[in-house]
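Weekly sync, protein design subgroup
Attendees: M.S., D.O., the rotation student, P.L. (late)

Item 1: inverse folding check
M.S. brought a backbone from last month's batch and wanted to see whether the design step gives back something sensible before we order anything. D.O. pointed out we never logged the input encoding, so this time it goes straight into the notes. Structure tokens as presented (182 positions):
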């Protein structure tokens, strides 16, 4: 939702998760490497079987690490090329695993979007059609939310009570001021 507001303001937003999904189904080198790592059966008719991949890597941390070592660099390079093509005072890059992937290293600022744990779980269940236990298991493997927010320069609260739009508009003005003064 926060990124949609920025897009409405004319700010380009790179979605790393969507880019990773695109690359895993369209980058022939990456497809080959994923097939070698996880088995050719993870692709059916050119589409990645995400459920199958999840079932393979979920309980095999080493395979997950190796998969991330393939996908994250490809996504970072794709993002770099995308960013070079943008003509805006600033751009945003959205990623679920920013700190875990090292994607934060090239950013001027980090913006966190905070929501209470139960609300994050409910949103993830609705978005991804996953069970609560599955969402909790995924979250348990990610960086702690409080630690993540502590690494951010700005935090937007999206808790269902606090108005998001005024926070985004204020941040937009702040980022424009920074970009113009840079």
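Designed sequence read out in the meeting:
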């Amino acid at each position: 939702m926060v990124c949609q507001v920025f897009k409405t303001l004319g700010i380009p937003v790179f979605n790393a998760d969507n880019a990773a999904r695109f690359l895993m189904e369209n980058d022939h080198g990456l497809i080959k490497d994923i097939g070698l790592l996880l088995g050719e059966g993870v692709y059916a008719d050119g589409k990645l079987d995400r459920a199958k991949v999840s079932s393979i890597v979920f309980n095999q941390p080493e395979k997950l690490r190796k998969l991330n070592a393939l996908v994250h660099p490809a996504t970072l390079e794709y993002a770099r090329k995308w960013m070079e093509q943008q003509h805006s005072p600033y751009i945003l890059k959205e990623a679920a695993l920013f700190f875990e992937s090292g994607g934060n290293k090239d950013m001027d600022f980090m913006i966190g979007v905070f929501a209470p744990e139960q609300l994050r779980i409910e949103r993830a269940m609705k978005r991804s059609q996953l069970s609560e236990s599955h969402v909790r298991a995924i979250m348990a493997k990610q960086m702690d939310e409080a630690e993540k927010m502590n690494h951010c320069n700005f935090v937007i609260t999206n808790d269902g009570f606090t108005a998001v739009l005024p926070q985004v508009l204020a941040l937009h003005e702040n980022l424009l001021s920074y970009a113009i003064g840079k």
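Discussion: The two ends are 28 Å apart (CA to CA). Residues 85 and 140 are 36 Å apart (CA to CA).
Action: P.L. to compare against the previous round before Friday.
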